[in-house]
Amino acid sequence: MKLRTLLPALLALIAFGQTQRPIQLADILAWKRIQAPAVSDNGEWFAYRLAPSEGDAEVVVRNLTTGKEQRFPIGDPGAAAPAPTDGPPGPPPLAIAAGGASPAFSGDSRWVAFLAYPTEKEAKRLKQTKRPIHAKAVLVELATGKKTEFEKTRRFAFSGEKSTAIALQRYGPEGPPTPPPAAAAAAAGASGTPAVERPSGSDLLLYDLAAGNELNLGNVSEFAFDKHGDWMAWLVDAQDKAGNGVSLRNMSTGAVQNLDHAQAVYKGLSWNEKGTGLAAVRGMDDKAFEDKLYTLVAFRDFGSSSGPSKTVYDPKSDQSFPAGMTISATRNPSWRDDLSAVTFGIHEVKPKKNAKDAAAPNNGPTDGEEKDAPAAAPRPPAPPEEPKPDLVIWHWKDPRLQSMQQVQENADKNFSYLSVWRPADQKFVRLADESVRQVTLAPAQKYGVGVDVREYELQGNLDGRRYQDIYTIDPATGDRHLALRKARYFEGASPDGTQLLHYNEGVFFSYDVATGKSIDLTSKIPTTFWNEEDDHPVVKPPHPAIGWTKDSDAVLLTDGWDIWKVPVHGGPAVNLTVNGKKEKIRYRRRFRLDPDEKGIDLSAPMYVAAYGEWTKKQGIGLIEPGKPGIRMLQWGDAAYTQLTKSKKSDTYLYTRENTQEYPDYYVADNSLANGRKITDANPQQGDFLWPKGVKLVDYTSTRGEKLQAALYLPANYEPGKHYPTIVYIYEKLSQGANTYPQPGYNGFSISAYTSNGYAVLEPDIVYKVNDPGVSAVACVVPAVKAAIASGVVDAQRVAIHGHSWGGYQTAFLVTQTDIFRAAIAGAPLTDMVSMYSLIYWNTGGTNQAIFESSQGRFAGGYWENQEAYLRNSPVYYAKNVKTPLIILSNDKDGAVDHTQAIEYYNTLRRLGKPVIMLEYKGENHGLRKPENMKDYTVRMKEFFDHYLMDKPAPKWMEEGIPALKMKDHLDERTKQMTKPAAAQGSMQ
Fold first, then answer.
1. For residue 48, which of 478, 667, 534 has the smallest C-alpha distance?
2. Given pLDDT bands bounded at 50, 70 and 90, which one contains residue 10?
3. CA 504 vs CA 329, 452, 493, 510, 897: distances in Å
4. For the whole model, what pTM was predicted?
């Protein structure tokens, strides 16, 4: 071929290469994710939210037949999000306004609706002026693309399966929130008059989808459609309780009826699953109690000519109802499927001080009619209370630590005991009490299942070995029978409620509720159903059951490789997948395609996620009824994490991803063949330098265990060249070799670092009990050496990073080896002796249970094996550290106590070791404020760039920043980070 023929192609190739650039912070913030995917019931439409890590998002609606797309800007959903809860480090979650599915299709597949928010810029302006941030609802007619917007809407719902209308809940009036009960009571006591209670109702707009007519309903606090969409019920909560009650609208005729009304507060509106029964509770103040006293109101027979019938249960007229208690407003009442009974919760009520007649509460009218209560005589103002000590008493007999009780305070306040009202025989039955607090109705509601932990709770909170006694309960009488004694692994009831699956010491059992006997299901099957590879200090932990079959005749279990059908009434077990253990393929989980299913239907095809243990290949397999073995529909060097199906058609959607491909969606038929790609979340990826792929590195630990590591190649990778490398550790990470490395800005990001010329190594770590730190050394150091031997890694330029448990291992590794040139330990444990007895503040529990039964992997407390605790504690080997180290530790860390980092930092500082600690004020175990996440990301990159790429060290690394100059330092850094990407420089 002549040069003049080749020249255009060569020039185009050079030009393309020149356009690609390293990923910078601004690029990370703009990288998008597919969220809230939804497919219409008829399989013709697909919708999803496409959102960047930070900034404005859009909703995409696609016709799966024509491929035509519509895109709707929806502003910044994060602007209206509540403060996120703590969790592992990562991008901040994208919140949806309470109750609003976004996006959602109507049951007839003709409409889609979603919420939209102010833009990022507008939201910042609103926050600065302290104005509320409100969402709006957007309704789109799919056939025409016509868009209708409804301002100030916080929640919406289509009218059931028929979807003749959409209900849109508006925001309530602005003002200070209703104070919690304790604060309200205090306010009342101080003034001598009742505290003002704000109503919770707001406008509800009912929009007729066919005619476009609007009906405005005022002061609605709750609303609910029945499953089919024949009826809409709502509760009214108005100022001064004027007009409060339960109302019902016939969605076909538009007729409205008032089902119950009183000068009371109504809560807990709920339909049963079939849509044949409706229930709520109504509460009234009582002069003898601080809490409202509630009455049950329930309705049925909606299709009768005489209208719905009403059942009212007023505890004050029932001598069998426990004294000093009332019906709970925090647990929704619900009819049983056969309409024979209504379930609800009950809880204790607190008498008012100096109140008389506390034993005779007034729950209000029992017939639904409003009645005038006698006027109460005015009471003199309460005298001021004497100052009280601020005291918490920690007692060694407390089943739960005081700190745990404080974390669980709201749950304890809202706890209620499950009870039943049977209208036919006018009988109240209490199913739960102090001895058996946790009771649920088993599927089919033939039996209740109760859990009693009293005997084991204290010890379980100490050592993590949590046992429970399981009872079966007759819902008609409340009679109990002890089914399982000291059960550690209770797997739940069968779909018909007649069998209970449980596990003990390597064997699964089925407990027959009728006979009261347990049947051995697995001891004679030629495989093991416990996890033989589990390296926690637990004896024969089971592989969790996959589930019951629909007919309740069998359970599906896994031995870690294959899926087995195990009959519960006799007969041979059947290996459904056949080849898993033989070919080292793990059939990990079943894709649940019908969210309403009641058990696994083996007469229908079953789709299963597959994973090659040593190849890292993944796929989707199909188990067909009556056919042995499994047929792979998708299989390769990729990951398939999502599979969904439209409700009324054979339209299937799945995701496929690898290091080069974002997990975009594909559409196919039930064979999953010839899938068509229907999303393209990040087309800009081609503009950036991207990892050249991933290599599997096989290696052996110093103890002889066969392991693997995933080695991500830098974007500029050329065979034969060596690259600076960052080792990222936790436990086993090589299984992620075929997942997409989404750019992130909460510290470490594989794609961001490989884009900037680094290789990244993620090795597997397995553990020996009593040696978590020593085990990390035994696995990580050989992995690094094997990666160096592969020819990719520059042996003189290797750094390590980990967070939490990975931070602990990082902190320990640098005391045992000099193989790393730099290290960053995020939220590390450093002293296993002191950490053992500290509090895990996010739950309020002690770390002792984590150490003895979970991640800590110690057999007992430090007094039983002191040498093991010491030899695995980084702080006791601090004198060995030669590696420059950054420690991230936040003052409000509720997982790894901040003192762990301080102890290690001060020891290293005392020894003159090169150590820096970054502390983000007010942050928990992982960073959540975007400004902190970005700052940490940049500082991490500066640190590694200095030690692995010989870039100049910034002043904060060389000299530190005095407290008086910190504000100026942060102001300057913030200006730099908010510059456009092109002006930032590499990741800065």
1. 667
2. very low
3. 38, 18, 16, 11, 35
4. 0.90
